């Protein structure tokens, strides 16, 4: 049996999410059925103790008769998706019974419909389903005080329902006790929201950093000239209206059809329909590539740097033979370090990129023949790509960050940048390069055209107060062992300018507070090292504040259940006044968004369910409980905060000026009881906005005033608009990059200031016992962890709809499957030195042999019947990710270059994911209380 010892049979599991799927049976006279405990819904007249009532609906007549109304219910998928797509919910008598999307206007290229994806459409199951937290809970055998807390029972223990008064008293008391007795060095905080301000007031805390999102990419953004800070910063690709002006779009290591669903693929398809040709670089021919008729350039995951160095070699070779390949004027004007005639003044080596590529320094020209042995890309494909990247064509090189989440990728961003600059692909219509496929800014980069109103007072001046940050990939080992080595004090997951030599730190964590953060899953090897840390370490209290039952919640001691962004109460006569208090509504990188042109309504559409409270309510109560003045952290009320956030919102008008979006009447101000001035310079009434659900900025196909071209200002006038580098130009040779990486001393062989190849300490080459003879090692397959249509990180993994529709498979190539006698649907065991899992195989002809894949984000379900050899039944990819980091980057882990082996499982087949549920709490036992 798995570690979550609360089994749920199929009938009960599916029924637990029934209200979310109530529309599957239709809707008519929705009648509450009193006394049914596990329907998972409550109407607007629910009793104060949160008794659950099911709603039975027989057909669509209630919608036809207009018994309810459509309301815009925010999708709160996190930044791994992009979110903010328009999702409408049909609400009848306080219950959401249908999901819809934007269809209120004609779908045009100028003003597209802001379409929802399956994750957004299934959010009802987050609100009403089996994974929803309903009540404050305490672990049965945990007691406060640090004596009788039984850490060995975490993940196994039973739960007790407690009141909010008890929950705040327990949580606040433990926070204060541990700070008083052990100091801030004893506290681990994993959160992105307001809580850091409170814990900063108490003296600080430990946090950790990781490269879970951007990989190695952001480490050198500023030193190379790619930009990271400020707006538009990192995601500033040419925006969607310029995609069709490219002759070629080369996509690398990204799959927006799965990872950034909604509109991004539609934008790319419009370019395809206009004649743009596509190529895709990656280990599998994914659904995005297929939808765009892209040419597939196969590459083994984790070997992309070798590929791009060979592309550079071919561009040099072809330019010498035929000319018209390299844009020499562009290189000589805007870059430094390509050849010895254009070197930066701070260069310490008499070396340049071009001569390195030609083998002048190591007698090893970086030819396609050299590269193909490493990356597996056919020689002819490398030559073809070199031609496409030449100055002959308008080419965009758009990537996500999958290839940067690999060991050995420290030079990849510089290599890709160099090739793009060799062709002159920057600052011009139809030309660009950078992360144009990633999540919130997929296929629509550039400046936000809408901005939230006032919300800066929720952040503290110095939210990361610890003396150093724990490298995330080794974080759980550090907590368990009480020691770690730091290499940076930066909170940006490793900016090389902040790297330093190794510093040793002792660690004695007594309190772990997790807020809307599933670190027991998302930080490497949490399933084994994390479980060891929380069961065998010194942690006396674990507090989890969340919406859903996550892996982290299951191993906590106190659970504080929060409302979702659909829920709020604006009527003081009906209980605590709570705006939509879940701050995931404003989470994410506000530098860019694939829906950057819309402003979504953050407004309650239903009353708070069960016995949950808003994040703001919880934080205020905890602040009082620990003896901190609430006004020091929350200078305004919760409703005032959310009103300011919305009413103060602005948009960029046709004149490039920032203008208020909303007109606000005195009647509206009085309605919400807030301190605000009548506002008449907007373009839309605030109350009308709440009904419509979003505001959208108009775009134009011709002479659009908001058209954004990345690096255009620099290309037009490099003197007036220098880049972020020491020289103000793109640094193909970057002394700062090399010095930063080499400061850590992680590798005896210094990294070069230009993009050079080095053998990664994990990944394809390391999978061989003997590279020269190609003798395979114990773990000869390279695992990647693609973002999956079923989830956004671990969000939605408990959705019954998505679990039934989308199995969590283990992808394997047909030749590799045939060699092991495996077919689609077979249960396979996947393992390495860190752990093992069971999954069903999905055999593909569109995957490079030697490469396998396991979708990111599945809840783990640890079977410990053999304590010395536990196995995960849920298929969590993090079970296989160990603490090994890359050669030069202290926090860069091999999410997509993990080495594994696999075999056909000789035990009983595991059931389909739709037949089982993990990471849940059986709330039936509490519903009658």
Characterization of the model:
- The structure is a single chain.
- The chain is of the alpha/beta class and 929 residues long.
- Among the domains are: 119 residues, no CATH class; 237 residues, Dimethylsulfoxide Reductase, domain 2 (3-Layer(aba) Sandwich), CATH 3.40.228.10; 151 residues, Beta Barrel (Barwin-like endoglucanases), CATH 2.40.40.
- 24% of the residues lie in helices and 16% in strands.
- It is built from 30 helices and 39 strands.
- The protein has a 6-stranded mixed sheet with strand order 7-6-22-21-20-8, covered by helices on one side.
- α5 crosses α21, α11 runs antiparallel to α14 and α14 packs across α15.
- The longest helix is centred in the N-terminal third of the chain and has 19 residues.
- The radius of gyration is 27 Å and the shape is globular.
- It starts with 9 loop residues before the first helix and ends with a helix.
- The N terminus is likely disordered.
Q: Notable features of this structure?
A:
single chain, 929 residues, alpha/beta, Dimethylsulfoxide Reductase, domain 2, Barwin-like endoglucanases, six-stranded mixed β-barrel, 30 helices, 39 strands, 24% helix, globular, TAT_signal, Anaerobic dehydrogenase, typically selenocysteine-containing, MoPterin_dinucl-bd_dom, oxidoreductase
